[in-house]
C-alpha cells in the first residue's frame, strides 16, 4: 500500500478529538436511566418518610393511567415504568424507618425490589378492590391523593379515577386528604448528587445560548427570529435533551416601542443595533433549567455596546445582588420579595422580581418570590419558606433610560439558576455581567 494511502487510512481510523464544549455530546440513555433509578431510590428511602409524617399521612395513593399520567409518576418509579391502563402506587407508613411501597395494577415489570416491596396484579375495578384491602389492612388515619388547588405537580388525579377510588374505599373514603404538602416536601428537597446533575444541564443550556448568539447562527440583516429559535430547538433535538417551554426571543430596537411581554414574531429580521433577549431552558437528567441571556448586535463601526446599555445591565446585576442577599433558609418568598424590592427602590432601581422554584419542573413546587404581573393574587408558593439546598431561578429585570437611544427606556431581563447553600445562594453558572456581542 502506498505510504500516502496508509496515512489516509490511519487518519480515518483514529478517534476524533475529545469533546471540548457543552454541545459536543450528552450522556447515553443507559447512563441517564441509571442516574434516574439511583435518585428515585434515594428519594423514596431518604425523603418520603419525613414527607408523609410532616403531613400526618398514613397512606399515599398515586393513581394514574396511560395518556393521563400523574406529574409525580416519573419521580417515584424506576426508569421505563409504564403507567398502565389503571395503576396505583401505594406508600404506607407502618412506623418503620422505611415506608412500605406497593404497586397495584398491570405492567408490573421492573417495579419489584428494590423499588417496591409488593406487586399486586389487578385490572379494571379490581385495582380499587385491592386498594380497599390495603386500607383495611393498615387502617390509615389519613389517605393522601394527588388533588391540589395551588400545586399543579400534586394535582394529577383525574376525576374518573377519583370517583372510582372514593367508591372503592368505602368507609376509608372519609380519610382522604390532599397530598399537596406531601408532594412539595418530597419533590422540592434536592439530593446532593442532583446539584452536579443540574450543573451539567446548565452547561448544556449555556452552550445553546452561546451558539445562538454567534455569527454561526446570526447574519444581521438576513437571519430572522424564527431562524434562531428553530436552530436552538434543532440543537436540543440533536443532543437528545427535552424542553419544558418553547424558547423565545425578544428584540429591543432604538425608536421602537417595547414591553417585556412582547415576544418578537418569527419573521422579524435581526438587525445591527438590536438588543436581543433569549429565554431558554432544557430538561435533562430529570431536571429542568431556566435561563435568560442578552446580546447586542453591533452596528457598523461599533466594537462595544453603547455605554447606556452597559449601565442598564449593571442595574439588573445590582438587583440580583440585592435579591440574593435577602434569600435565607426559612424565609417566606413573599417576605424576601418585599425586602428586596424595598432595597431596590431605595437605590432608585426601576425593578421587577418574579423568581421561582426550579428543579424537576421548570416552574417547580417550592417558594415563589414575587410575580410577573404586579397585583397578582398571592399564591401558596409565596408563603412557602426557602428550603436549604433547594434550587431557585433568579428571574428579574430593571428598566433604564439609554442616552444613546434618545433616553428610550430599555429592559434588561436576566434569569439565573442557583441553589441555597449554608453560606447563601450560589449560582450554578457565572451570571451575565457583560452583554454578549454577536460578531
Tell me about this structure.
- The chain has 439 residues and is α+β, with helices and mostly antiparallel strands.
- The protein folds into two domains: 29-187, Creatinase/prolidase N-terminal domain (Creatine Amidinohydrolase, Chain A, domain 1), CATH 3.40.350.10; 192-437, Creatinase/methionine aminopeptidase superfamily (Creatine Amidinohydrolase, Alpha-Beta Complex).
- Helices cover 33% and strands 21% of the residues.
- It has ten helices and 17 strands.
- It has helices spanning 3-13, 29-54, 126-138, 159-169, 180-187, 192-212, 225-239, 307-326, 333-346, 380-383, and strands at 59-64, 87-92, 100-105, 118-121, 143-145, 176-178, 248-252, 275-280, 283-284, 287-288, 291-296, 350-357, 369-370, 391-402, 408-421, 424-427, 436-437.
- Strands 4-3-2-1-5-6 form a six-stranded mixed β-sheet.
- Helix 2 packs across helix 5, helix 3 (126-138) crosses helix 4 (159-169) and helix 6 (192-212) runs antiparallel to helix 7 (225-239).
- It is elongated.
- The relative contact order is 0.11.
Mean pLDDT: 93
Rg, nearest Å? 25 Å
- Poorly predicted spans: 1-21
Biggest sheet character: 6 strands, mixed
Q: Any idea of the CATH class of the largest domain?
A: Alpha Beta
Helix-strand topology string: HHEEEEHEHEHHHEEEEEHHEEHEEEE
Classify the helix fraction into a percent range: 25-40%
Number of strands: 17
Structural class: alpha+beta
The fraction of residues assigned to DSSP E strands is: 15-25%
How many helices? 10
What do we call the CATH homologous superfamily of the largest domain?
Creatinase/methionine aminopeptidase superfamily
Describe the strand arrangement of the main beta sheet, using strand numbers: 4-3-2-1-5-6
Q: Might you state the CATH topology name of the largest domain?
A: Creatine Amidinohydrolase
Globular, elongated, flat, extended or rod-shaped: what is the shape? elongated
Taking the alpha carbons of the first and last residues, their distance comes to: 47 Å
Which CATH-level-2 architecture of the largest domain? Alpha-Beta Complex
Amino acid at each position: 500500500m502506498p505510504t500516502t494511502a496508509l496515512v489516509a487510512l490511519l487518519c480515518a481510523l483514529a478517534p476524533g478529538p475529545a469533546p471540548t464544549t457543552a454541545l459536543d455530546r450528552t450522556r447515553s440513555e443507559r447512563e441517564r436511566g441509571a442516574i434516574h433509578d439511583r435518585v428515585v431510590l434515594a428519594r423514596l428511602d431518604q425523603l418520603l418518610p419525613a414527607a408523609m409524617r410532616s403531613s400526618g399521612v398514613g397512606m399515599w395513593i398515586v393513581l394514574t393511567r396511560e395518556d393521563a399520567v400523574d406529574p409525580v409518576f416519573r419521580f417515584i418509579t424506576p426508569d421505563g415504568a409504564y403507567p398502565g391502563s389503571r395503576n396505583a402506587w401505594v406508600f404506607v407508613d407502618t412506623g418503620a424507618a422505611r415506608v412500605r411501597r406497593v404497586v397495584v395494577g398491570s405492567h408490573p415489570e421492573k417495579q419489584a425490589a428494590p423499588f417496591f416491596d409488593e406487586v399486586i396484579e389487578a385490572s379494571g375495578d379490581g385495582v380499587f378492590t385491592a386498594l380497599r384491602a390495603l386500607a383495611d389492612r393498615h387502617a390509615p388515619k389519613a389517605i393522601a391523593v394527588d388533588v391540589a388547588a395551588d400545586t399543579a405537580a400534586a394535582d394529577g388525579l383525574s376525576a374518573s379515577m377519583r370517583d372510582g377510588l372514593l367508591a372503592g374505599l368505602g368507609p376509608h373514603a372519609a380519610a382522604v386528604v390532599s397530598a399537596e404538602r406531601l408532594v412539595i416536601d418530597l419533590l422540592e428537597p434536592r439530593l446532593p448528587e442532583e446539584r452536579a446533575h443540574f450543573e451539567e444541564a446548565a452547561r448544556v443550556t449555556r452552550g445553546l445560548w452561546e451558539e445562538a448568539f454567534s455569527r454561526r447562527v446570526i447574519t444581521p440583516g438576513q437571519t430572522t427570529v424564527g431562524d434562531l429559535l428553530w436552530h436552538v430547538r434543532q440543537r436540543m433535538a440533536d443532543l437528545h435533551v427535552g424542553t419544558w417551554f418553547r424558547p423565545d426571543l425578544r428584540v429591543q430596537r432604538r425608536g421602537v416601542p417595547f414591553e417585556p411581554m412582547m415576544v418578537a414574531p418569527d419573521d422579524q429580521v435581526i438587525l445591527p443595533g438590536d438588543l436581543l433577549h433569549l429565554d431558554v431552558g432544557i430538561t435533562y437528567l430529570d431536571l429542568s433549567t431556566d435561563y435568560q441571556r442578552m446580546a447586542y448586535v453591533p452596528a457598523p463601526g461599533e466594537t462595544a455596546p453603547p455605554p447606556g446599555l452597559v449601565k442598564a445591565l449593571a442595574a439588573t446585576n445590582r438587583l440580583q445582588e440585592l435579591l440574593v442577599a435577602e434569600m435565607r433558609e426559612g424565609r417566606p418568598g413573599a417576605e424576601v420579595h418585599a425586602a428586596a424590592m424595598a432595597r431596590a427602590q431605595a437605590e432608585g432601581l426601576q425593578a421587577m422580581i418574579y423568581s421561582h422554584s426550579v428543579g424537576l419542573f421548570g416552574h417547580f413546587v417550592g417558594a415563589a418570590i414575587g410575580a410577573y404581573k404586579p397585583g397578582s393574587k398571592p399564591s401558596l408558593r409565596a408563603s412557602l419558606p426557602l428550603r436549604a439546598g433547594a434550587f431557585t431561578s433568579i428571574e428579574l429585570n430593571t428598566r433604564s433610560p439609554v442616552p444613546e437611544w434618545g433616553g428610550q427606556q430599555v429592559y434588561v431581563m436576566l434569569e439565573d439558576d442557583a441553589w441555597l447553600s449554608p453560606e447563601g445562594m450560589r449560582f450554578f453558572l457565572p451570571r451575565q455581567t457583560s452583554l454578549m456581542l454577536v460578531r
